[in-house]
Design a protein that fits this description.
The chain has 301 residues and is of the alpha/beta class. It is built from 10 helices and 6 strands. It has 2 domains: 211 residues, Alpha-Beta Complex (Spore Coat Polysaccharide Biosynthesis Protein SpsA, Chain A), CATH 3.90.550; 70 residues. The protein is 50% helix and 9% strand. The longest helix has 32 residues.
Length: 301
């Protein structure tokens, strides 16, 4: 949460009023993302009222991805629910997500089918982003931006999030063989404060997605990428060399009259550099996996 002082009392009471949650080992982790209003004071008051509340306060605003990461790291339960604090997510939808999660899924994503935000600066950019994400990732969800999601915690243990990548958690899980599902959830009008997001965020999301897709394809074998690029440059150097000979003997041009000799040298240098960069990247990846005792595979549970 960020500057949500007016929403906290209602949010806390709503969560604890859901009967299905109170019957389980409920823990609430609130992440104050460097708020400048009285959010911190309101959270401390809520913690005194409900002992199962755990408050975490950031020294400054790090963003939603960092906040969700902190929640995952500090939660003790086996099942995690993420949600926004602006009261637009409805806590009464949580039992539906948990019920579907029990059917064998690793993550259940909320779908704000009847979204209450403004069309031009919120819903339209979101629709465009959702279509692009589905097209690039080949994981088809209607609403990647809905924070209300249910996860099995063990599926999240090896995920590291940066930038705006919190919305891509289902992609990580799907790419690693996990099962994902979607459930229609209630979406309510914002009562307090104003949204912190706009159209510009769509650009950041798309850039992060392209980077993520690149990592998903090339992370475990970077030498293939650099080796391919090296092969292309070596091929271009050979073509340039043959053209250089053609113009010399059949085109009536000396070597110094064309840029082809310089291109031959340039392409060879780039090819050699790319080849050695691939070797270095491969060594780094093997060091990464072995130093952390990580596996290059994920076993089915």
């Amino acid at each position: 949460m960020y500057n949500e002082e007016d929403s906290i009392p209602t949010l806390v009471d709503e969560i604890f009023s859901v009967r299905e949650l109170s019957n389980q080992g409920l823990e609430i982790v609130f992440i104050d993302d460097g708020s400048t209003d009285k959010t911190k004071e309101k959270l401390i008051e809520a913690g005194k009222k409900y002992p199962s509340i755990k408050n975490i306060f950031f020294v400054k605003n790090f963003g939603q991805t960092a906040a969700i990461t902190a929640g995952i790291d500090n939660a003790e339960g086996d099942v995690l629910i993420t949600m926004d604090s602006d009261l637009q997510n409805d806590p009464n939808d949580i039992p539906k997500l948990l019920k579907k999660l029990d059917k064998g899924y690793d993550v259940v994503c909320g779908w704000r089918k009847n979204r209450k935000d403004k069309f031009l600066n919120r819903r339209l950019p979101s629709k465009i982003a959702n279509m692009i994400i589905s097209k690039i990732s080949h994981v088809h969800l209607n609403d990647y931006g809905c924070t209300l999601k249910a996860f099995k915690k063990d599926i999240l243990k090896d995920i590291r999030l940066y930038g705006e990548m919190h919305r891509f958690i289902p992609l990580y899980i799907s790419w690693n063989g996990g099962k994902i599902a979607e459930e229609v959830v209630n979406h309510r009008h914002r009562k307090h404060g104003k949204s912190k997001y706009g159209i510009s965020r769509t650009v950041s999301v798309i850039v992060d997605l392209i980077f993520l897709k690149f990592l998903e394809k090339q992370f475990s074998h970077p030498s293939h990428l650099f080796g391919g690029f090296s092969l292309i440059n070596f091929s271009l150097s050979i073509i340039s060399f043959l053209l250089m000979l053609y113009f010399k003997f059949f085109g009536g041009k000396s070597f110094i009259e064309t840029p082809l000799p310089q291109l031959v040298i340039l392409f060879i240098l780039i090819g050699v550099i790319s080849l050695f960069m691939g070797f270095i990247a491969e060594i780094l990846m093997r060091t990464y996996y072995e130093s952390q005792d990580r596996k290059s595979y994920v076993k089915k549970k």
